[in-house]
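Weekly sync notes, structure subgroup
Attendees: PM, AL, DS (notes)

Item 1: joint prediction request from the bench team. They want all two components modeled as one assembly rather than separately. Inputs as received:
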Amino acid sequence: LQLSIRMLAAVCLFSASGAYCADGAYPEPSVKAAFLLRIAEYVQWPAPPAGDFVIAVLDRGDMADRVQALVTRPLLGRPVRVRRVRTIQEAIGAQMLYVGNDRRRDLRTLLRSMPARGLLVVSDQDDGLAAGSAINFLLADGRVRFEVSLDAARRAGLSINADLLSVATRVAQ
Amino acid sequence: MMRQLVQRLRSRIGRPYSLRGKLTRLIVVTIGGTLLTMTAALLYRDLAQYRHSLAADLAIDADIMALLAAPALDFDIPETAQRNLSSFRRKTAVLAAGIYSTDGKLYASYVREGADPLPAMRPAMGPGARVTGDVMHVVRSIIREEELLGTVYLRATYDYRGHIRAYLGILALIMLLSMGVALALAARLRRRITVPVEAFAAVADDIVSGRNPDRRAPPMPLQEFASIASAFNSVLDESEQRMQSLREADRRKDDFLATLAHELRNPLAPIRHAARLLQMSGLEESQAQAARDIISRQVARMALLLDDLLEVSRVTLGRVELRRERVSIASLVRVAVETSKPAIEQKRHELAVDLPVTGMELEVDPLRMSQALSNLLTNAAKYTDPGGRIALKVRCEEGEAVFTVQDSGIGISAAALPTLFEMFSQVESAIDRSEGGLGIGLALVKGLVRLHGGTVHAASEGPGKGSTFTLRIPGCRPEASPELGPGGQGLAPQGERRGRILVVDDNTDAASSLAMVLRSAGHTVLTAGGGEEGLALGASMHPDVVLLDIGMPDLNGYDVARRMRFTDWGRNCMLVALTGWGQKEDVERAHGAGFDFHMTKPADPERIERLVAEFLGSRRST
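Output from the run, pasted for the record:
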């Protein structure tokens, strides 16, 4: 079942017309979930995780389930575990943190109170990068795109593959 | 106009190759062929290399594009792929580039201005390069983390025509340059080869056409030509020498024929006169006797002349077989002196014979040897004015008998010396001399001497100063038994030379005249007019000697001789053949039929008599 979903997502991603997906055949959250897993492949962490590769999801919706459903292979050689968190503290020790757009008020302060080293923060907020996340989803012409903050990534000790930058809508230094 | 051109072309084709044209053609063909072959090989190699390097180059481009396009496909951003593809703008060889998604649909594309658009679906070919016409297609898969994301497809100009054109241009340039250089070299070579050869050909042409037969090939610069030229020249020299000696021989032959005619005619006049005298009635016996003497003398002279003629041809051609026997030198000299005595006495010459070698002998054919000696003596008598001196000196030196005949005669010019012993040569001034002669005497001497393995040499201090002939014969040695042996035909004792002789000849005149001569010498002679009659007569007569004509109507001489040899009386008698033919084959045939001797007609009665005397003498002594 997972595989067939992945394949559907892939068909959507590789189809010549992006509108097909934006038209709603695949909902925007699914695309974001797929992106989340892909982005991980373009990022280098300072140290490999001690145990599983943990993706923390701070979101009211069902993003965690969606991501989990798309996992087909390990990341950084580790099995992938998606953990739904309620507070930012729960994300300590994870490799990625996804912050949904309903936590907007908290993001800036949340990130400031948090040791950033080794954590890739992906946000889905209007000014996510300004709030301190390394990658932020946005919509352009009804299609999911993202922007990258090299500064935030640097502070977290992460290096982002140039290939990822080439497809980013915006790259902030 | 066109016809003229065709005719000129035809005439050119028909002409033989000139060395110059051949050389030029050779150079053009060689260099052209080499360059063309080389170019073809290089072009082939270059095209393969061009194709290979283009494919490799495009593969790298496609690889880069695949890497760049991976994230765009990953995150489904065709604009990025588009942007990446448009970087091919700077690479002019690329006509079009496209990225196809995994479902085969065109995802992003770049098409150069004026180029054909890309197909909407991925071209049906695996990863790699392929060429159709002047277009190269390259396909690479886009793979990330072992996941196939899509396909890059490139279409590029494969400009093999341009390559070939460029090559042909270079070839033409090289060809032009090398041809120029080669032709320049050929021109130089031509100066060294064809110019001398043409000069040579011109000389040969001159000689062949007879314009200037004395020309010779010029010196040649190249060694091969130089040896050809020298060979050519020496052939010319030699042929000219031969030509000259042929001319000389021809001249001598003409002279000889003139002399021969003269010599044969000479005796005819006295014979004719004598014959007319004998026909007249009331002739006194003394007159008749004189006429008979004249006829006999002149006929003898003619016979001698003809004998000499036949003899010389046989001797000089080496067709005479020597009958060697041991003969004392003294007897040889005696016979020679006796034979030549008439000629010497006629001109009242004084002959001095110096013969200190007694008891020495030679192994020679006595007849031939004394003939050679007497020829020299007769010659001396002929070419010396009346009352001259002739000296014959004989020595034995280092195993060689040396005979020297010296005279006080007209001598020999230095120019005549080299050809003196050749056939038909005669001292020119001597031709007017009353003695005449055919100029074959010395040739005969030389031939005879050579047959004996000896040499003959002439020397003269010049015209009017006399001449000396020296004859050397090897094998001079002491006489084994001085008193034994025939020693020479002239030596037979006078008292023992009467015998019974049978003459067989269908020409009764010839038979009876010969019988008369032999009878006068004291022999008993009978004649028969044919073979059968001869055989019958022989049976009753038991002759010692039979003189047999060969050409008879009833039974030829050979058969008669064979049959005679089977009779008691004929087994041991001497058979002499008389024929008109003196060739070697005739002699051999005669010997084969059982004849002891062979004689050409008209037979010299004196010679027959000598032969008979010798035979009888030898029979009595054994």
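Discussion: The first helix of chain B runs from residue 2 to 14.
Action: AL to compare against the crosslinking data before next sync.
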